[in-house]
Write a structure and sequence with these properties.
This protein is α/β, with parallel strands linked by helices. The chain has 17 helices and 15 strands. Helix 7 packs antiparallel against helix 8 (about 255-280).
């Protein structure tokens, strides 16, 4: 149940508090006073979409806080058995949502709000003209198992569509698959026939340079080695110098470091001479190998021109081509597998659709009879509702049925689709009848009706008021209305006024309430005739309550 609603900066509302009654709370006031903004505030608190246009001029943000009895499963958000849903929309359109003071998403807010409040807007009755709405109503009237079955069917139907899309994509791709397989197979074979390895091109370039200058390298190595190592060469000179310095160190210990350095340098020169001789021996004149290296380098460069600038790039291309080729070569298996999944999804959806159909056909007569009874209570004796359930060949997201509500205003009239025969007032009452049928079937504790009294008045208005009062014995009901015939049944009557451009709300009791009903009846609060009529309406409401009790 909604315990308290606090709104700031929303439309014509500067700041406003409302504490609804457990039973029937009625909000009345002049057009534009801000009654509907209160219903809008509740909608925002339970996750409805909002925008910057809702923010009051001069306000930084529109803010709504709604305090409810905590529903089952909301223990983590609740405190002292209550939970607060809050919504803020800034003047730049950005918004935030909170549950129990913790930041959350509008989706999470909506999911919790769905268990707390159901709102019927002033244009909500027009939704009854939509076949999908009529189908959903019939399923809800059939009970929670049918609602769950309908949800399972929608999931199965969406999976079927998704599998069909995948299958269609595979079939389309199959047209180019063979050509693509041939191309990829050729590319893989071409690269594999060369067999490149990472860094191979750089190694070949170094080897080609060495083989191409082999004779010159041998001559240079021989010259350098001779200068260092032949008799009288640098190695002998440094060896002799090292012996002399060693003799110096023997006579003067202070020259010991010089002796060590001389010996090391002589050894390094001798070692260098030896390595140059070995290098010369390794450098061979091999024209055949040079040709092989150049042929191999040319083959690799041919791959570079087609598949990548480096050996690594070519190898990456090879891996990707192999993977794509494997995928394409197994596409037939994939096609078969997805085809089987499509068949499986179709069977699952068809089975659920058949179950939905059986329950709908079985339920429709009793629901139509219940609606007809409610219409009689709402001042429409002789009116009747029929619900047709027709199987269709092309199933949709609601199943394989076309559900159609047909209405007749009297026994003498033929039944026809709602949109062709029902007036605005009749639709409003039919919507209330639908809600009454569902009252005992679901556990949404709070119902909000925003100006559902369009097109009705007089005795019909009283009938609607009686029905709302009866509904309020099992639910908390909030009603925004212009009809005194409805307002007179309120357990709590809230008058909404606009003062200095801002909405205010006050509980109306005693003479203030009579004056408000008088204004609603005659446009004047002091009309003696209207005042008398207002008191008669209140007496009628008391009598109805006494009978209900």
């Amino acid at each position: 149940m909604l315990r308290q609603l606090h709104i700031t900066g929303l439309g014509v509302i500067g700041e406003l508090d409302v504490e609804p009654a457990p039973g029937l709370t009625v909000l009345t006031g002049e057009t534009g006073a801000g009654k509907t903004m209160i219903a809008t505030g509740i909608s925002l608190a339970i996750g409805a979409r909002g925008g910057a246009h809702l923010v009051r001029d001069g306000a930084g943000a529109a803010k709504v806080q709604a305090r409810f009895d905590a529903p089952d499963g909301a223990e983590e958000w609740a405190e002292d058995g209550e939970v607060i849903l809050a919504r803020s929309i800034a003047s730049d359109g950005r918004g935030s949502a909170r549950i129990g003071g913790q930041l959350t998403t509008a989706t999470a807010l909506s999911e919790m709000g769905a268990a707390l409040v159901e709102i019927h807007g002033q244009h909500g009755s027009l939704r009854l003209l939509d076949g999908a709405t009529q189908t959903q109503f019939l399923d809800r009237a059939a009970g929670p198992k049918q609602v769950e079955r309908a949800r399972a069917y929608r999931d199965a139907y969406e999976r079927l569509l998704e599998r069909r899309r995948t299958l269609a994509g595979l079939i389309e791709a199959a047209r180019d698959r063979e050509r693509q397989i041939d191309l990829l197979a050729y590319q893989v074979r071409e690269i594999e026939s060369v067999g490149p390895s990472a860094g191979e091109t750089l190694a070949l370039e170094a080897e080609e340079a060495r083989l191409g200058h082999a004779e010159r390298l041998r001559d240079l190595a021989e010259g350098a080695g001779g200068a260092l190592g032949d008799d009288g060469g640098a190695a002998d000179v440094f060896a002799s110098a090292a012996r002399d310095v060693a003799s110096i160190a023997a006579l003067d210990p202070a020259a010991g470091e010089l002796a060590e350095r001389s010996a090391a340098l002589a050894a390094e020169i001798a070692d260098l001479a030896s390595e140059l001789r070995a290098y010369r021996e390794r450098v061979s004149l091999d024209p055949e190998r040079l040709g092989e290296v150049r042929d191999r380098a040319a083959a690799l460069k041919g791959l570079h021109r087609k598949y990548g600038a480096t050996d690594n790039d070519v190898l990456i291309f090879l891996d990707e081509a192999r993977a794509e080729l494997a995928s394409l070569q197994t596409a037939d298996e994939r096609l078969t597998s997805i085809g089987a999944e499509v068949d499986e999804a179709a069977v699952a959806a068809s089975s659920l659709a058949e179950e939905l159909h059986r329950v709908r056909v079985r339920t429709a007569p009793s629901v139509a009879a219940a609606l007809t009874d409610h219409l009689a209570d709402l001042g429409m004796p002789g009116a009747a509702i029929e619900i047709g359930v027709e199987a269709i060949d092309d199933p949709g997201p609601m199943g394989a049925d076309r559900v159609e509500m047909r209405f007749k205003g009297s026994a003498a009239q033929p039944a026809a689709p709602l949109g062709k025969v029902a007036s605005g007032g009749e639709l409003s009452r039919l919507m209330l009848a639908c809600r009454s049928v569902l009252a005992a079937l679901d556990d949404v504790p709070t119902l909000v009706f925003d100006e559902i009294d369009a097109g009705i008045g007089g005795e019909a208005g009283l009938a609607v008021g009686r029905r709302l009062a009866r509904l309020a014995t099992t639910h908390q009901v909030l009603v925004v209305t212009h009809l005194p015939q409805i307002a007179c049944f309120a357990d709590l009557h809230v008058g909404v006024r606009k003062r200095d451009g801002a909405a205010t709300a006050h509980v109306l009791e005693g003479s203030d309430r009579v004056a408000e009903l008088s204004r609603m009846l005659a446009g004047m609060e002091t009309s003696e005739h209207a005042l008398s009529h207002a008191e008669e309406l209140l007496d009628e409401a008391d009598r109805v309550r006494a009978q209900a009790g």
